[in-house]
Amino acid sequence: MKYKKRKFSEEEIDQLVIAEAEDLTKWEEPISVKPTSIRLSPSIIEKARYLAKLHKARGYQTWLKHIIEERIKLEEEILSNFKRGLNSQL
């Protein structure tokens, strides 16, 4: 006899992922990612240079790195708060 695999709804998948998010045994080993470079248009570089000077950064690349790291932390915090809100509703 063949058994049909049950298809989960998007909501069920979300609930499963949220429930297992804190369980480290459910996660694979962390991977390391090599640093990469990105290409920016000359106009963006000029704006970054100007803003870096305003913020008294060492250079625009240092300032951009700081801005990107800050934004990633903010996004992680927003996601964490969202997950906590979902868990409190369960």
Describe the structure.
The protein has 90 residues and is mostly helical. It has a domain at 10-19 and 41-89. 60% of the residues lie in helices and 0% in strands. It is built from three helices and no strands. It has helices spanning 10-20, 42-54, 60-89. The longest helix has 30 residues, at 60-89. The protein is elongated and about 65 Å long.
The average pLDDT score comes to 87
Major sheet attributes: none
End-to-end distance: 36 Å
Binned, the helix content reads 55-70%
* Number of beta-strand segments: 0
* SS content category: mainly alpha
- Low-confidence parts: none
Note the beta-strand portion.
Answer: under 5%
Helix run count: 3
Using the CA coordinates, give the radius of gyration.
Answer: 21 Å
Please name the defining characteristics of this protein.
mainly alpha, about 90 residues, elongated
Set down the secondary structure blueprint:
Blueprint: H1 10-20, H2 42-54, H3 60-89
Helix pairs in contact: 2-3
